[in-house]
């Protein structure tokens, strides 16, 4: 499934380490997204590398007006500044078009008229088209042959193995409503931006197999992966945007960073005396130990102050 790359990295010389934080503007940042931002920033700084920010704004129906700007303002309040200009996926449709055209020309992607209800009998897993009619605009799926098993070593979650054909099936690259699927956009952007290390929440671990298959299909490099523990609320569920508690000043920023630091398995006393976010980040950089990051959290992280 390999071929010449659909895109080229952002720089001619590959970086030694380039990580990123890529929020969707569906609401303000919450404790879980702050942990992902801080964790990815710490790992980049520990490696002496770069940390970039990308706004993944490809789903207008779910986006909240002004959320992207508030997310960036929260990162600034925390002292987490990107090492390159912020990129927005909404300005990169041509890149996704090019990648999808290459896949279709190679026979690796196909138009699909199946509805969710028609795929319900197979648990939503697409192995063959069962549509009883045609749509004005079909979805486009990646063809996933039998035996498409992906194995990779996650630096936090350990060795992973996924039979993408059996567990996921032929997956969507462009939706029937014309919007780009997350899997294609993130693969194209990570390659285009020269991302060497993808650090994100463990709730996205299941997407990694699909993304590696896409990287192989497009002839793109596969970055290293690290999936951080998931922050849950008092009910044990993943936090939603309604749980947001964005820092608005120095004290709330310090609280958010200290909570995230502790959730990442780091010693709380290392940051106890820091009087400002900049001082805290300097101390965090010198005391951070990636080996202490847990695969799972034993309890919830406070979300309200």
CATH homologous superfamily annotation of the domain at 22-228: HUPs
The tally of strands reads: 10
CATH class of the domain at 22-228: Alpha Beta
Number of helices: 9
The residue ranges in which pLDDT falls below 50 over 5 or more consecutive positions are: 1-12
Question: Alpha-carbon distance between the termini?
Answer: 50 Å
Class based on secondary structure composition and strand pairing: alpha/beta
Q: Which overall shape is indicated by the principal axes computed on the Cα atoms?
A: elongated
Rounded mean pLDDT score: 90
The radius of gyration over CA amounts to 20 Å
Question: Strand count, sense and closure of the main sheet?
Answer: 3 strands, parallel
- The CATH architecture designation of the domain at 22-228 is 3-Layer(aba) Sandwich
Query: What order do the helices and strands follow?
Result: EHEHEHEHEEEHEHEHEHH
Q: Portion of residues in helices?
A: 25-40%
Q: Name the strands of the widest sheet in spatial order.
A: 1-2-3
- Percent range for β-strand residues: 5-15%
CATH fold topology of the domain at 22-228: Rossmann fold
